[in-house]
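Journal club prep — side note

Before the paper discussion, L.F. wants everyone to see what a predicted structure for a comparable chain looks like in token form. Sequence:
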Amino acid sequence: MTTRIHPTLDDLVRLQFETRGFTLLPRQPVHSLLSGRHASRLRGRGLTFEELRDYRPGDDIRSMDWRATARLRKPHVRVYSEERERPVLLVVDQRSTMFFGSARTTKATTAAELAALGAWRALEVGDRVGAVIFGDDERVEIKPQRSRSAVLRICHELVRVNGRLSAASAPATKSAFNDALRCAANVARHDHLIVLVTDFDGDDETTRALATRLAAHNDVLAVLVYDPAGIRLSGSGFMEATDGRRRVAIPEGSHFAQAFETEFRKRCEQLRERLRALRIPILPICTHDPVPEQVLAALGGRAGA
């Protein structure tokens, strides 16, 4: 398996040939990744009449057809569908906490690959695509546009910001993650698809409030980037871990390894429950395997691209 620490622009451009046959919005009734020209599920009323049918519990009373109800002596509703654009906003974590990988590549590079894959697919189906790319001490905002040059700029900035990461990188400021979410909320005020690509390091109450704000008027997908060594870690001889400032010895023995894995899974389950309450699905992406293969395995196949 080839090991790469940083992505190149060529790497991210080549992903345009891996974009068919899956969706990053699995609960939507669509058949292609990031497809914006699909039936809206909750953003406003449609303009195209589909059918007149019996009233069902849970139907919006405002869709009631009172004339048909009186004529047929049974409650009936008018059903509409709405074709609308769904701009895509990629929020991509490139902080020092993402500069970790035990095999193929790092979490930061995996995040960059996922973002590039999504950007190319959005362009392919004719949607606007933009990005908020954030590192330890900078944030790049690219407003959604429908052009190849916009996707190339996203790829270029991903490569540039990722290239600044090293073992000597200063730890991220505590506010970097939440500042990026605030920026996303200002860009995507409503009817966007927001793809949040991160390891969720630094997730706190403010993060949850911002996620609630984003999900209130947009569709959100959380991509949780992880490395297997971040799940199972056991000491062997004299091993140390560092965050760039502190160095901590890793205890030997199965007790520590089990406790480490238990804590990781507990954190993931808490995150999953919080996001589930907001109807935000989670897509786990591992650093060890190629990103397109993982997305295809989780969310679709080549057919119907």
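L.F.'s comment for the group: Residues 27-47, 301-305 have pLDDT under 50 and may be disordered. Keep this in mind when we get to the figures.
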